[in-house]
Design a protein that fits this description.
By secondary structure, the chain is mostly helical. The protein is built from eight helices and no strands. Helix 2 packs antiparallel against helix 3 and helix 6 packs antiparallel against helix 7. Belongs to the Ycf3 family.
């Protein structure tokens, strides 16, 4: 039984039923349908904190998915898991891959900026000011791109850019 068939709450059950109907009637090839099923199971596992299971499902979806736009969201979610596990280098790699597949993904740009900002703060704490400035600069560049794509989002980033003279 797939993970999505085990959902216990009403919203998850409703989503699962709708997703199954869409899969059944959507005129796509079998690999695209399988990829979506793995992606859906990955999202379900991720939402429950089952990151190993989520990653396994996302990797299966990634192997089956052919559409770059759809792949970008799989790659993005893999990046989210690595970031939440503190694996920032891996997270950055997957966020960049997501952007290669879909350069209109402001959430990936934002998350890259957040990681660079975090690393800059850590560098500042140990008085590595040159590294900190370089990382703050990188964060600013990615936040500017994210804000350009989604001007009403990332208000805190906009405020930081303004208050630090980077906007």
């Amino acid at each position: 039984m797939s993970r999505s068939q085990k959902n216990d709450n009403f919203i998850d059950k409703t989503f699962t039923i709708l997703a199954d109907l869409i899969l059944k009637f959507l005129p796509t090839n079998i690999n695209a349908k399988k990829a979506f099923s793995y992606y859906r199971d990955g999202m379900s596992a991720q939402s429950e904190g089952e990151y190993a299971e989520a990653l396994a499902n996302y990797y299966e979806a990634l192997n089956l998915e052919e559409d770059p736009y759809d792949k970008s969201f799989i790659l993005y979610n893999i990046g989210l898991i690595h970031a939440s596990n503190g694996e920032y280098v891996k997270a950055l790699d997957y966020y960049h891959k997501a952007l290669e597949a879909n350069n209109k993904l402001p959430q990936a740009l934002n998350n890259i900026a957040v990681i660079y900002h975090y690393q800059a703060v850590k560098a500042s704490e140990i008085n590595d000011l040159e590294t900190a400035q370089a990382l703050f600069h990188e964060a600013a560049q990615y936040w500017k791109q994210a804000i350009k794509l989604a001007p009403s989002n990332y208000i805190e980033a906009q405020n930081w850019l303004l208050s630090t003279g980077r906007l």
